[in-house]
Amino acid sequence: MSYVDEIVDQVIAQNPSEPEFHQAVREVLDTIRPIVDANEQTLRRDALLERLVNPERQIKFRVPWVDDNGNVHVNTGYRVQFNSAIGPYKGGLRLHPSVNLGIIKFLGFEQIFKNSLTGLPIGGGKGGSDFDPKGKSDREIMNFCQSFMTELCKYIGADTDVPAGDIGTGAREIGYMFGQYKRIKDLFTGTLTGKGLSFGGSLARTEATGYGLLYITNALLNAHGIDIAGKTIAVSGAGNVATYAIQKAHQLGAKVVTCSDSTGWVYDPDGIDVDALKEIKEVKRARLTEYKNYRPNSEYHEGKGVWTVKVDIALPCATQNELDIEDAKTLVANGVFAVCEGANMPTTEEATKYFQDNGIYFIPGKAANAGGVATSALEMSQNSERLSWTFEEVDSKLKNIMENLYKNIDDAAKRYGMEGNYVAGANLAGFEKVLNAMNAQGIV
Ligand code: NDP
Ligand code: 2IT
């Protein structure tokens, strides 16, 4: 049996009930076979793949907090410090009832290669909790964030592990967590990114993941002689990534006609109104049912269905495995020609293969959504030098990073004889740098 197949089997046997982690490992290991097969003897000797798939450290802790009625609740907190070969652990904190160790491990594993692809010195990590922020008051959110950070602060630091936002964790939550970190550790450092602009946050970090997604989508289309202007796009999600993806798509002259949340989706034939979306989701923290009040011409539908609209480009920006084989078939039948992942692993394995088999340009999340963490690394740089760069400076660096990233994954796919396979290109290019650093640092 090949080394890759052995390790995939081992991961499944040793980590039962973690299907998302199996999926992420399978996809990466399957595509880095050219490197593994060519160096099998030394990699086996050094147990390189065993070390790659086993987090350096996993922290699981109790998070007790008090609600507005004085009732005590207990959630579980996680931080998986997966790989620090190329820099301090870096990755977001997800607050969602579906969070468990397997989800955090899949996200942390993806983050290793994503962070490598940014070209910046950041290792892979991820954390979060099964806490559900929905329907909680500001004070309850604060109580939770403070309790969460009271434990997490023991394990993080500006040169150790730098958490940030993810699903359910935005500027408000990062602010509360930063306040508690500073209070306990008595340190005003860049230990969290995505901070408010008045206390060390970077301009353009809020926009970065969505903008970055459009910069790489545009680079992909340009490389194939296609103009994004005038194209119709379906976006899923209505959070941080989706909102700024829609905004940048419109700036580039495309038209985004859909968005979605956990209960339904919107079709707006005139193009999604970003100001309305922000008001509903960022200010009111309400459901998309409200969108019709702002745009009478639009349609709201309960449940799934965002991928049934006829579009040129699909940008899944909500959550893992939200786009399955049936969705892929519908999109392809409707003439979609590019799919770029704003979320982490939003496309199932079967759907990804279907897109690739049908000649659809497909850029995986670890490349397409890397603009968020890349800009987090730029926030770390600014914090270290105690300076703030202008929006234009950060945005132009972000654009540059995403354009280079496209070139690198395209080049890696070509170098290994898989031209156009950006899944393989991203995994191979991301792995090369991590492998090199792990080899240089010995058996650690
Ligand atoms: P937000 O919490 O801001 O928004 C998430 C959106 O997705 C919301 O509209 C939410 O619906 C919807 N959603 C979440 N879970 C589900 C679910 N189980 N089923 C259906 N819809 C769901 O998160 P982000 O925009 O930050 O994150 C979106 C994706 O992008 C995630 O995969 C995240 O890991 C990834 N990502 C985020 C980065 C960042 O910088 N924030 C960077 C790179 C990747 P509702 O409004 O009802 O809650
Ligand atoms: O998935 C991701 O890359 C993020 N949620 C952003 C991580 C970060 O450290 O900015």
Task: Please give a structural write-up.
With 444 residues, the protein is of the alpha/beta class. The protein has 3 domains: 1-54, no CATH class; 55-187, Rossmann fold, CATH 3.40.50; 206-368, NAD(P)-binding Rossmann-like Domain (Rossmann fold, 3-Layer(aba) Sandwich), CATH 3.40.50. 49% of the residues lie in helices and 15% in strands. The chain has 18 helices and 12 strands. The protein has helices spanning 3-14, 19-31, 33-38, 40-45, 48-53, 101-117, 138-152, 171-185, 205-223, 240-251, 274-283, 291-294, 325-333, 349-357, 365-368, 370-385, 391-415, 422-440, and strands at residues 57-66, 72-83, 89-95, 123-129, 161-164, 232-235, 255-260, 264-267, 299-302, 313-315, 338-340, 361-363. It has a 7-stranded mixed β-sheet with strand order 9-8-7-6-10-11-12, sandwiched between helices. It has a 5-stranded mixed β-sheet with strand order 1-2-4-3-5. Helix 13 links the parallel strand 10 (313-315) and strand 11. Helix 2 (19-31) crosses helix 18 (422-440) and helix 9 (205-223) crosses helix 16 (370-385). The longest helix has 25 residues, at 391-415. The protein starts with a helix and ends with a helix.
